[in-house]
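Minutes, project check-in
Item: structure for the 324-residue chain
Input as provided by the requester:
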Amino acid sequence: MGYKEKQCEKQQRLIETTNLFDGAEANMEFRGEEREFVLKDGKFNIYKPIREKVIKYFEDNGIQWWGGKKPSGHVLSSQIACINHLFPIRADHDLLLRILNDATGKNFSELLPIPEWLDKKEKIPHYVAFEAISKVDHLNEGNLSRGSNCTSVDALMIAKNNEGVWLIPIEWKYTELYANDDKSNEDREGEPEGTNSVGLERLRRYQDLIQNSTQLDKKYKGYQGTIYFQEPYYQLMRQTLWAELSMKDYKADKFLHLHIVPEANKQLLTHKFRRFKEGNFSNDMVTNWRSLLKDKDLYLCKDPKTIFDSIKDWYDYLNNRYWK
């Protein structure tokens, strides 16, 4: 049994035997079948003390929920996991700063509030944004809609140290694992096999940006069929480009890409990816991705427990639900 299956069984036990979900009913239909791991009302998937505030934040800022217009009831949702870890402390400057410095070793001196062009102004400044996008369409994607149909990051922080202002995009994973699909070779549904209209559109959007990147390796003669177009590297590639090009939107000098992945999710961290068109890659996700970066220190992969295990207020909730 893999990590995803174990977590699925665990979450079902928590639904049945604990009050973490406030007695919410499960067995909601998901992809055509009733599932014991999908709550009928997705708001109960969110940590109770922040539940209504999270829903209001998404509504106020026009953010799309994963899978629909309401919080997902899927208890393995990484979007929900990210929110449950970070939202309770998004206005706690000192605690966030300590956590960020412990995680990165960058000796940040302060965090900067999220700009009003991204998040609606609130009474108290906050230092974490969710489903963050750029100010303009840097990646040729057309529609900039938070949470859907464009490259966005699960969470975002802005910090400052003696090197300048840093943009810190955060990609959050929970039980994700990926097939060996080539995103540069994909047909649109209903079109003849081999048309590859979806794959060609992706190449049109991103290959010139890769070629002009200051961070991504440009050793390939062409990018079709390369590691950049297979998950999870396809997402990491787009977010790296996003960070490079969005620094000016956030008035930042540098960026640091944080990838949050549970250490126990070996199926993601050590998945045997297919042989790529060019290059000699291992079965280690972090090693593979770092080999493609000019400045390897600008990407960090961390287990959430190692970052948040010093917190107090909602430690039991996070430990029982996600880490234990």
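Outcome recorded: The chain has a mean pLDDT of 92.
No further action items on this chain.
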